[in-house]
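Researcher: First entry.
Model:
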Amino acid sequence: LLKRTGDAAPFSILDQVDDQIKKVIMQNQVEVYNTLENLKVSVIEDSVQLLAKAEIVLILARGLSESIASEVTLKLQLLGKYAEFFSDPNIIQTIAGQVSPKAVAITITLNGETPELVAAAKTLAARDIPQIILTTNAEAPIVQYADELFVGYKSKAAYFDKYEVASRLPLQVMSRILLDSYVVRKRGQKS
């Protein structure tokens, strides 16, 4: 298993790099480890059930989180689940007001503050559409609308300080765990 910051690192590459690169590598380890520590079994299980029951999965994301949302959409489609991904701010808000009541929404947002995603979450909540939200900000405005909340760990270090391009690694880890868990449960029901 991974070790927390300050513990001896289990990766041989760390013996071969300078302290700055070592810090970059360890930052990723800390993000993954702390994201895993934040996970709750009940959230994973309940999210899997929401996905299993839904006729439609609506996936919403903006910016760099879109690549993760695109992957989630494709994997759900490969599993035979009807899934649609939206990133356009105008369409996100419109779709939230029109999606079938038999849908579930997955919102992938690093900071949980993107105005159109928060507005869509509010609309979905008013329509009683279940929402699975993946974020790294437990205090974000969008959190209040979550039926199931995955909260990852976002490192404080920022190497691109003039831009909002922080690592989406925690979101990637959580989305993978959600989808892999869905596959495991789906296969278990067939046997």
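Researcher: Second entry.
Model:
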Amino acid sequence: MGCPILMTIDPKSTAILKIELASVSSAETWQNHYEELELNQLIAKALASDRGKGITGGFKAVHPQLPWYSDHFHEFKKLLKLLKKFEKQAYAAIDNEYDHWCKLNNARSDANLKKRREQYEQASQDCLEKIELYQQVEDALLLQIPSLFFLNSKKRPNCSQTVRDNILTIMEWLEELQNEQINKQTE
């Protein structure tokens, strides 16, 4: 479970805020927090957060007229964990291929040489597939990351339609890999 943070863009002061970790992350808790910020003359312009009902509900109660922007990083957390898993599998496949290479080099009889060559070729093919899967997922996610930032390169909030279009395109690319683990995350 992550800890919420307060982030300001272009802060007008260096005032120190009293922020306590609440035991309950309800809309009422967040509403009290936003009201406390207002009392300290810290004026909100917008909210960028996950889709948590507490944080968004509290914000809307205090600032119904201000925009809320989804923090898409939260929505890609499971895909990033899956990427790390694919990376570990690729490294394990590299080690396995190397082990089979060493065994092939130590084989002496024709029968053993043939058996070890087949094992090495299978390990090599598995290694290539795992590296390729990892690389394709990493490439797709790296292309997606800039769309997930709250601000674009012009320092303006990312347009929701552009973000949506980019996310859907990347999801289509990932689905084309026809990997069951990825497809569970992109549904």
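Model: Note on the second entry: The CA atoms of residues 141 and 170 lie 8 Å apart.
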